[in-house]
Design goal:
Length: about 140
């Protein structure tokens, strides 16, 4: 993907993030994620019904990479089964580690394919995705 297009997608998702804003609803699984090496802190709310991600909400104080990554994650994961989410998450992590991954599965999240070259930005891109991993683990623990 062209680097100008990547920048444009990241900027659009930072300026107009999807899923931004928390709501009062006890049916959501909530997690707080923070990056101890910078200001990034994200609160995630995820609604899963019948093993399908119905909604993801987030809010917090974070950099452009972190906010845009959360926004793209919201768009990518809503409507997916928890198994599909696990697969996408696994491939997102592989991509950010510079390993071989399934490009198609990542959809628009592919814009972060160069982040592994800049290690101090990896946590920014990963923070909300680690939150989803935490949510999936909570879900498994409750079964």
């Amino acid at each position: 993907m062209d680097s100008n297009l990547k920048r444009s997608i990241i900027l659009e998702n930072y300026q107009n993030p999807k899923g931004k804003g928390l709501i009062e609803d006890e049916s959501y699984i909530k997690v707080n994620m923070n990056n101890e090496s910078c200001i990034d802190e994200i609160n995630l709310m995820v609604k899963i019904e019948n093993d399908i991600v119905k909604d993801i909400r987030f809010d917090g104080e974070a950099c452009a990479i972190c906010i845009s990554s959360a926004s793209i994650m919201v768009e990518t994961l809503i409507g997916k089964t928890t198994k599909e989410v696990e697969y996408i998450l696994e491939n997102f992590l592989k991509m950010l580690e510079g390993k071989e991954y399934d490009e198609v599965a990542l959809e628009e999240a592919i814009v972060y394919d160069d982040v592994h070259k800049n290690p101090n930005r990896k946590k920014c891109a990963l923070l909300s995705w680690w939150g989803i991993e935490k949510v999936l683990n909570k879900l498994k623990d409750n079964k």
